[in-house]
Design goal:
alpha/beta, D-Maltodextrin-Binding Protein, domain 2, 6-stranded mixed sheet
Length: about 250
């Protein structure tokens, strides 16, 4: 049988999910590719992979889209690793650099800036190393592991998931396991179980990934919320609706 091509994000937030996938029999049935979110999204759109842990902002661009697990990268409030960073309060920000590794977070920022903070700024797509340009009245959206490092540098940080919750009252979904074609039911069940296995063994995941910039136990148990609940589905539907106006 031809292996199912699976794309996963290579950030700390996916380590619990990949812990389970790599330790289950399902690893023999898949080709696993690890990259950053926008790269995985491009692969899924180009049909180079069959299923990926992708930014949810790409769902409307897919000809077919199937969320295949009960697991997501979500947050009920502040997520800690998706923030707008600056040297000045947001009221004084004039330009914002958008993380090149992101698709969902930069669109979330655009929605929040327009509807929640109600402020017009110059927006620029960033390039690798752009964090050095976050100074003066130039701010930056930084996601993933690099956001933890930026927290120690920038005096001001605005958590985008917390802002979304304050604005809408709903949790936010950053990424989900999305397939661009129907997959076998037995594979989906096994893949879901593999993801859950990792979430049930967080102590081992943390021990395997020593990290000096942030408390991973807090990150995995308080900041990220992995279960794709009904409230998260409502938050996702609202985000996709608002995305049409971006």
């Amino acid at each position: 049988m031809e292996k199912i091509k699976v794309g996963a994000v290579s950030y700390l937030n996916t380590k619990p999910l990949l812990y389970g996938v790599k330790r289950s029999g399902i690893l023999d049935k898949i080709d696993l590719i690890e990259q950053y979110p926008s790269s995985i999204a491009t692969m899924l759109l180009a049909d180079k992979i069959d299923v990926g842990l992708v930014p949810v902002a790409i769902i409307p661009q897919l000809k077919e889209a199937y969320i295949v697990t009960d697991i997501c990268i979500g947050a009920n409030d502040a997520v800690a690793s998706v923030c707008l960073f600056s040297e000045v309060p947001i009221e004084q920000v004039e330009k914002v650099l958008l993380d090149y590794q992101s698709k969902t977070s930069i669109n979330l920022f655009k929605i929040l800036m327009k509807e929640y903070w109600k402020k017009e700024v110059l927006i620029e797509d960033a390039k690798p190393g752009y964090q050095k340009e976050i100074k003066g009245t130039t701010a930056g959206v930084v996601i993933g592991d690099r956001a933890f490092e930026q927290r120690a540098i920038s005096p001001y940080s605005y958590d985008l998931a917390a802002a979304w919750k304050a604005y809408t009252g709903l949790p936010f979904v950053f990424a989900a396991w999305v397939a661009n074609k129907p997959l076998p039911d037995d594979f989906i069940a096994e893949f879901n179980a593999a993801n859950q296995y990792g979430l049930s063994n967080l102590a081992e995941v943390i021990a395997e990934n020593p990290y000096p910039f942030y408390d991973l136990k807090r990150y995995y148990t308080q900041d990220i919320s992995y279960q794709l609940t009904e409230d998260k589905k409502k938050g996702l539907a609202l985000f996709l609706q608002k995305l049409k106006g971006v």
